[in-house]
TrEMBL record:
One of its GO terms (cellular component) is cytoplasm. NCBIfam families: hisF. PANTHER family: IMIDAZOLE GLYCEROL PHOSPHATE SYNTHASE HISHF (PTHR21235:SF2), IMIDAZOLE GLYCEROL PHOSPHATE SYNTHASE SUBUNIT HISF/H IGP SYNTHASE SUBUNIT HISF/H (PTHR21235). Its main location: cytoplasm. It is found in: Cytoplasm. This is Imidazole glycerol phosphate synthase subunit HisF. Heterodimer of HisH and HisF. It comes from Arenibacter certesii.
């Protein structure tokens, strides 16, 4: 059985790690390279870095950041934010990233998924989907959750899989930063309907939430930010508890 993965997420703005609630009210959470090194040494399975401002200058900063992170960590890491071309991905992978995450650019130009998979392989391509449940329907949002689309989460996720993406990173905007648990019902539906791994994001507040998302949400990996950045949950204790609940993890 494949082990479940624990993935700290570092949202990057102006070279610093930040964290908010429901995608707003950001506060500083530290230096991303220092945090990455700590997580790599304390049991994280992977890391995700997202440039949430994603300006042209930000992408250059991110490419430099990738180089610095690659020198410090020995676990896989994914980079996203403002990626819109084969060239963008090429730079990040050459600088040491293991995977890239695309979001708004994939919705605006779905062919980009196909092009990236053809060039770099599906194992490198993660499609992030930010969705909000509105009147019982999960609606995909863009630009850091600011712009609603007409896309349904599950329909878009299926298309993403058909176009060759290797993983989906699903963030529930309703749950993000609330610390009330992951969107397990939606996650379970995604995991049942798709054959590629689903990373759960949005809502981690205590250790039991991770247990629930692996059992009830059928997630393949769980991503969190503030509970790790502000030392509310230690990855070691989290994994020990998952192991006690017969959830396969790398100890």
């Amino acid at each position: 059985m494949l082990t479940k993965r624990i993935i700290p997420c570092l949202d990057i703005k102006n070279g610093r790690t930040v964290k908010g609630v429901n995608f707003v009210d950001l506060r500083d959470a530290g230096d991303p390279v220092e945090l990455a090194e700590i997580y790599a040494k304390t049991g994280a399975d992977e890391l995700v870095f997202l440039d949430i401002s994603a300006t042209e200058e930000g992408r250059r900063t991110l490419a430099d950041l990738v180089l610095r992170v690659a020198e410090k960590v020995n676990i896989p890491f994914t980079v996203g934010g403002g990626i819109s071309s084969v060239e963008d991905v090429d730079i990040l992978l050459q600088n040491g990233a293991d995977k890239v995450s695309i979001n708004s650019s994939a919705v605006k130009n779905p062919q980009l998924i196909n092009d990236l998979v053809a060039k770099f392989g599906s194992q490198c391509i993660v499609v992030a989907i930010d969705a909000k449940e509105i009147d019982g329907e999960w609606i995909v949002h863009l630009v850091g959750g600011k712009v609603p689309t007409k896309l349904n989460l599950f329909n878009w996720a299926k298309e993403v899989e058909e176009r060759g993406a290797g993983e989906i990173l699903f963030t529930s905007m309703n749950h993000d930063g609330t610390k009330n648990g992951f969107a397990n019902e939606a996650l379970a539906k995604l995991s049942t309907e798709l054959n590629i791994p689903i990373i759960a994001s949005g809502g981690a507040g205590k250790i039991s939430h991770f247990t629930d998302t692996f059992i009830d949400g059928k997630a393949d990996a769980a991503l969190a930010a503030s509970v790790f950045h502000f030392k509310e949950i230690s990855i070691k204790e989290l994994k020990e508890e998952l192991h006690r609940n017969a959830i396969p993890v790398r100890l």
